[in-house]
Every structure is written in structure tokens, then in C-alpha cells.
Amino acid sequence: MFILSRRIIAGAALALALMPCVAAAHEYKLGSLEILHPWSRATPPGAKVAGGYLIVKNHGPADRLIAASIEAAGSASIHEMATTDGVMTMRALKDGAVVPDNGELTLKPGAYHLMFEELKQPLKEGERIPGTLTFEKAGTIKVDFAVEAMGAAEPAGAHKGHEGH
């Protein structure tokens, strides 16, 4: 009886330890597209902009991410950051970002990303902010952006268990 109880306790402890990874992992499917881990960073009070990040895996013909939105922002656009001769620049991509056929589009800090503008409230760590992503061919899908810590480089637990994708 004592051994069985220890096994149950050990199993429960392991399950609890893995819960943050499961909770952080959120994926969506739209046609041949997989949208992995939409996330943003927490913002300080008074901030007017925030970035949005995610991975789009395409298992079919090329498509294009053409629009995005979140309930907490007045507008959103797709941006690209680049460094030329040591100078970092950022520009809006008026035609969106290509999701290559049988490839992927990665939106991450310092590269392609979503720019959420005219924030209506601070984004708070731990929240999930409802939003949408619109693709030229696949259409629109509702997603939740997980809000991570202010300095996060990627979402917590984002790539654990996805090595085979």
C-alpha cells in the first residue's frame, strides 16, 4: 500500500510539473496551415504598441499573411526588421508576409513580427488576448495571443515536444 501511494504521489507531481508546458503550447489549424504559439510580451502602463509573434507551418501551396488583430489594440500591421550597415530599420509590409509552399513563416522579436498599435490597455503577463489572423487564400482564423514576460525571447515551452513537426 505504501509503495502504491508513493507511485501515485510521484505521478501526480510529474503531471503538475509538466502542466505549464502544456498550458503554454497552443496551436491552431486552418486548411494546410498550422499556427503555433501566438504570443506577445507584457507592456508597461501607457505603452501604445506591442509586438506579436508566432510560427506558421504550411503543408500545402504558398499563402500570405495579410492582416492581424487583437481586441486590445486599435490596429495591427505586419512588420519586418533588418540590419543594414549596423543600422536596424523597421518597415510595414503592405502586401503582408509570404508563407512559402511546404515551408514556414516565423514571426519573432528582431525579425518579421506583428505590430499591435493604439493599445487600449497594458498587456499583462499570463493573459490570453483574443485576436485574428487573415491569410490571402486560407482565410481568417481566431487565435489567442499568450502574454509572456516583458523581456521574453520566445514563449515558455514553445518548442518542447515539437521536434517532429
Overview of the molecule:
It is built from one helix and eleven strands. By secondary structure, it is mainly β. It has a single domain, classed as Immunoglobulin-like. A hairpin with a 7-residue loop joins strand 2 (33-41) and strand 3 (49-58). The chain is globular and about 40 Å long. Residues 8-24 and 159-165 have low confidence and may be disordered.
Write the layout of secondary structure elements.
Layout: H1 2-24, E1 27-30, E2 33-41, E3 49-58, E4 63-70, E5 73-84, E6 87-92, E7 97-99, E8 104-107, E9 113-119, E10 128-135, E11 139-148
Parallel strand pairs: 2-11
Antiparallel strand pairs: 1-2, 2-3, 3-8, 3-9, 4-7, 4-10, 5-6, 5-9, 10-11
Helical proportion? 10-25%
| Shape, principal axes of CA atoms | globular
Output mean pLDDT.
85
CATH C-level = Mainly Beta
Query: Would you tell me which CATH topology applies?
Result: Immunoglobulin-like
Q: Provide the low-confidence segments as ranges.
A: 8-24, 159-165
Strand percent estimate: over 45%
| Category from helices, strands and their pairing | mainly beta
SSE ordering: HEEEEEEEEEEE
Assembly state: single chain
Total domain count: 1
CATH architecture: Sandwich
Number of alpha- plus pi-helical segments:
1
Q: Any idea what the CATH superfamily is called?
A: PCu(A)C copper chaperone
Could you tell me the number of beta strands?
11
Straight-line distance between termini: 42 Å
Q: Please tell me how large the radius of gyration is.
A: 18 Å
Largest sheet: 11 strands, mixed
